[in-house]
Amino acid sequence: MEEIIGRGYVLVTACYGDIDPDFDDGFQNGVHPLFYRGGQRTPAPDEWGSIGAWAWGLSRILDYLETDRAVDAKRVAVMGHSRLGKTALWQARRTSALPS
Asked: Could you read off the pLDDT of 30-45 as tens digits, one per residue?
């Protein structure tokens, strides 16, 4: 952490389980129910799953950091391991595709 901060980066962490639980709960906890249409109880086959929800959550965190004047939003790194590595890649791809 000292090296990251010493190089001028801000360190922000998030618990992916707070965005969407990492167990089969039928998508009833986490962010999914916030986006269901009337009567919907689970994501449709072509809708996002947990990794998509985690990437969405990271994107919202980065959206906030862009509003914080104490943070240089152009100096951001996202990391993860295993499925959270895939999450970081999905989020980074989404961010890099946005117009600057």
From this structure: 999 999 999 999 999 9
Percent helix, strand and coil across the chain, each to the nearest 5? 45, 0, 55
Task: Give CA separation, 79 vs 18, 37, 66, 75, 82, in Å.
Answer: 17, 32, 18, 13, 10
Angle between helices 83-96 and 50-65 (to 10 degrees): 50
- Give the span between the Cα atoms of 99 and 44, in whole angstroms: 29
3-state secondary structure of 95: helix
Query: Identity (one letter) of the amino acid at 92?
Result: A
Q: Tokens 């240089």, residue? A: 72
pTM of the model: 0.79
User: Which of 54, 28, 53, 24 has the alpha carbon at shortest distance from 40?
Assistant: 28
Residue 83 has pLDDT above 70, yes or no: yes
